[in-house]
Write a structure and sequence with these properties.
mainly alpha, two-stranded antiparallel sheet, 4 helices, disordered N terminus, membrane, transmembrane, transmembrane helix, ABC transmembrane type-1 domain-containing protein
């Protein structure tokens, strides 16, 4: 990781590396690359042109530094403007002395190197993939659970409906059988009653016929008796009750 800030050396954008070796921190102005020797000693210290804040030349008295680059030492844990200024003063004495030193240094901007960016991107992608996989698994589990629950509910409802229908059919069948039995019993009773009535009527009619015949015979007999007795009386016989007496003529 590197720290980029505008130093007191005429607005130069300085890249301070975590490595504390001489030449590991390189300042690049107006998109210029450091010399091959400096680049070899600090390959991570090249600053993109988009981060350059000034096109002013760098004036440094270091014998191994060109007009476009300068080097300095910086502790990796330096985190305040005052500490940075003191370290700049110790390592870039001539550069700072020949420049107009500002009251305070501008705020630091954190720059991640390519390896760090790739690491964070890889971690972020891995996290996103894991989250997506977990979400998909959870959704699939929930969908399967809901489907199983729906199937179980449907099966239970179907079984209950079938049981109820069977019970209703059994009850209806029993009721139908009972109705048939009642109808048969009623028919049998009606037939028996009709037969009994017919027999009674026949017997009564026969009795009435016999009685009528006897009465008729009695009437006929009575009439005959009356006729006979009348004839006898007319002939002079005496009739007393059912007997008659012939009257003897005197000699």
């Amino acid at each position: 990781m590197a720290v980029s800030l505008r130093s007191a050396c005429r607005g130069v954008c300085v890249c301070v590396s975590e490595d504390t070796r001489v030449g590991s921190a390189v300042s690049s102005v107006s998109g210029f690359r450091p010399s091959p020797s400096l680049a070899a000693s600090a390959p991570r210290a090249t600053i993109p042109s988009s981060l350059i804040h000034s096109t002013a030349p760098v004036i440094c008295d270091r014998p191994h530094v060109s007009l476009q680059t300068c080097t300095m030492h910086a502790h990796p844990h330096t985190n305040t403007h005052t500490q940075l200024r003191e370290r700049y003063r110790a390592t870039m004495g001539a550069c700072i002395e020949r420049s107009t030193e500002p009251e305070t240094l501008e705020k630091m901007t954190t720059i991640f190197d390519t390896g760090t960016i790739e690491m964070y991107l890889t971690a972020a992608i891995a996290v996103v993939v894991v989250v997506v996989v977990v979400v998909v698994v959870v959704v699939v589990v929930v969908v399967v659970a809901v489907a199983v629950a729906v199937v179980v509910v449907v099966v239970v409802v179907v079984v209950v409906v079938v049981v109820v229908v069977v019970k209703i059919m059994v009850v209806l069948a029993a009721a139908a059988i009972a109705v048939v039995v009642v109808v048969v019993v009623v028919v049998v009773v009606v037939v028996v009653v009709v037969v009994v009535v017919v027999v009674v009527v026949v017997v009564v009619v026969k009795i009435m016929v016999v009685i009528a015949a006897a009465a008729a015979a009695a009437v006929v007999v009575e009439v005959a008796v009356v006729v006979v007795y009348s004839q006898r009386e007319s002939e002079g016989d005496t009739v007393i009750g059912r007997k008659y007496y012939r009257t003897q003529e005197a000699d």
